[in-house]
């Protein structure tokens, strides 16, 4: 009977270690939705942040031990925080997942995909994976609007004669 109990104790010990390792691994992973940001508390002595793949995530070091991590593309990468001497004081895996589906509609036109934000009216929303034409047209309009708002003005193709 004690041999069977010993095997069960060993089994429970191994399972406990495996569960602890899995929970620990999850604790070292930061999940972020695409185009969203998360705040992380980091040690005060951090002077340098390294992102393994900046196409997937970006990070900005703020004062007071705050790090802003932004999801830029789908996938996984890592984040390292270094102190002044180049020692790693924090290491995290960063997982960027798709945007939340709240009020979002995806339209397929053949193989081309379009993403629309319907809050409350549907408007184009550029998302990685959208069709080339839809993505290009939408980002072009957003860029032109942003340029006009910053005082660059949008070109209309007409001009008034000088002096009038």
Entry summary:
The chain is built from 2 helices and 10 strands. The protein is an alpha+beta fold and 164 residues long.
Describe the structure.
The chain has 164 residues and is α+β, with helices and mostly antiparallel strands. It folds into two domains: 28-97, Sandwich (Immunoglobulin-like); 104-149, no CATH class. 27% of the residues lie in helices and 38% in strands. The chain has a four-stranded mixed sheet. The protein has a three-stranded antiparallel sheet with strand order 2-5-4, with no helix packed on it. A hairpin with a 2-residue loop joins strand 8 (104-109) and strand 9. It is elongated. The N and C termini lie far apart (104 Å).
Task: Throw out a few tags for this protein.
164 residues, Immunoglobulin-like, 4-stranded mixed β-sheet, 3-stranded antiparallel β-sheet, 27% helix
Blueprint (SSEs and pairs):
Layout: H1 2-27, E1 29-33, E2 37-41, E3 46-51, E4 57-62, E5 66-71, E6 75-83, E7 88-97, E8 104-109, E9 112-118, E10 122-124, H2 132-149
Parallel strand pairs: 1-7
Antiparallel strand pairs: 2-5, 3-6, 4-5, 6-7, 8-9, 9-10
């Amino acid at each position: 009977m004690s041999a069977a109990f010993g095997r069960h104790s060993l089994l429970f010990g191994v399972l406990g270690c495996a569960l602890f390792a899995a929970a620990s691994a999850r604790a070292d992973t930061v999940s972020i939705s695409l185009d969203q940001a998360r705040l992380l508390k980091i040690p005060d002595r951090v002077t340098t942040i390294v992102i393994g793949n900046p196409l997937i995530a970006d990070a900005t070091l703020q004062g007071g031990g705050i790090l802003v991590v932004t999801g830029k593309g789908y996938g996984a990468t890592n984040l390292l925080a270094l102190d002044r001497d180049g020692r790693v004081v924090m290491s995290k895996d960063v997982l960027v997942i798709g945007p939340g589906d709240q009020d979002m509609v995806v339209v397929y036109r053949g193989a081309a995909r379009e993403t629309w934000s319907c809050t409350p009216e549907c408007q184009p929303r550029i998302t990685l994976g959208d069709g080339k034409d839809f993505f290009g047209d939408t980002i072009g309009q957003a860029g032109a609007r942003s340029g006009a708002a910053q005082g660059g003005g949008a070109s209309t193709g007409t001009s008034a004669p000088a002096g009038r």
